[in-house]
């Protein structure tokens, strides 16, 4: 056995021992937190469209939830304003295809996905998915996942919680933060873990393996106004192509973009130039 491998094994053992000590020191309502990066779940039908007929996902790493894994396969997801490459596929294959992104990702794509529980994709945002063997345009399936806690019935009983309840989870640290409307999901197939997306983690400077604690239950979740609760995506062109021969003060005020491109020979009035300076807009001649 080489030295590098020995050091790796020793490091993992010490890490595990450390986690046990940490876990023993935690309060009974402590919840381990996992940060969930953008990813997709695929149906077998769509796996074969993207990766080829008869294709099966291959395991890269096990995930914390039993029988779930990060696949070696990745895809490109695209919207009207942009695309994101190397989006990890999670396995195994599911009955429905869905993509889970953060709001930051959604702005890059130019879409407005609803805040949803995983698996609830009815009426969600459309997107395109591209793989090595094909591509798909889906009318729905793109969501921002609602923060949630997986737990088995034993933990649910210990914590006095039921599946479908909402709680507030508080996290101490450099930037203390409280997550509201965290949904409880109970199943024999789950192990105790809270899932948040990268935007939520960044807001609290939270890294993988952090812990939170359940602060209080939410009696009647005020939540999830879905589409209406999310801000509009403001589409701003980089410049405005002005094609008329005279650029006036009124034109400057009507143009929303900060950079105005004009043809060589276009007359720009003195008042228009003053207004452009006042509004912080630039006027450039198109090459």
TrEMBL record:
Official protein name in the record: Phosphate propanoyltransferase
Family: Belongs to the PduL family.
One Pfam family in the UniProt entry: PTAC
Catalyzed chemical reaction(s): propanoyl-CoA + phosphate = propanoyl phosphate + CoA
Class of the enzyme per the UniProt entry, highest EC level: transferase
Organism: Paenisporosarcina antarctica
Domain of life: Bacteria
GO MF terms held by the record: acyltransferase activity, transferring groups other than amino-acyl groups; metal ion binding
Cofactor: Zn(2+)
InterPro entries: PTAC
Documented EC number(s): 2.3.1.222
Keyword annotations of the record: Acyltransferase, Metal-binding, Transferase, Zinc
Ubl conjugation found in the keyword field: no
């Amino acid at each position: 056995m080489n030295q590098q491998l020995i050091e790796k094994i020793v490091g993992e053992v010490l890490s595990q021992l450390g986690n046990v000590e940490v876990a023993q020191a935690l309060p009974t309502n402590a919840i381990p937190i996992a940060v969930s990066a953008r990813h997709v779940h695929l149906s077998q039908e769509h796996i074969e469209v993207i990766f080829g007929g008869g294709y099966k996902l291959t395991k890269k790493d096990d995930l914390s939830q039993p029988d779930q894994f990060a696949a070696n396969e990745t895809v490109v997801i695209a919207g009207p304003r942009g695309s994101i490459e190397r989006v990890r596929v999670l396995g195994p294959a599911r009955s429905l295809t869905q993509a889970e992104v953060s709001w930051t990702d959604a702005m890059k794509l130019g879409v407005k996905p609803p805040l949803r529980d995983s698996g609830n994709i009815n009426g969600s945002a459309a997107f395109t998915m591209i793989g090595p063997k094909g591509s798909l345009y889906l009318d729905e399936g793109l969501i921002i996942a609602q923060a949630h806690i997986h737990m088995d019935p034993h933990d649910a009983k210990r914590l006095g919680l039921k599946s479908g309840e909402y709680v507030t989870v508080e996290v101490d640290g450099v930037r203390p933060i409280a997550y509201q409307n965290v949904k409880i999901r109970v199943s024999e197939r789950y192990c105790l873990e809270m899932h948040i997306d990268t935007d939520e983690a960044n807001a609290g400077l939270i890294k993988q393996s952090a812990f939170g604690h359940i602060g209080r239950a939410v009696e009647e979740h005020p939540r999830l106004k879905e589409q209406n609760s999310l801000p509009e995506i403001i589409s701003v062109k980089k410049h405005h192509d002005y094609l008329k021969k005279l650029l006036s003060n009124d034109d400057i005020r009507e143009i929303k973009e900060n950079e105005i491109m004009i043809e060589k020979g276009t007359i720009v009035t003195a008042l228009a130039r003053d207004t452009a300076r006042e509004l912080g807009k630039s006027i450039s001649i198109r090459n």
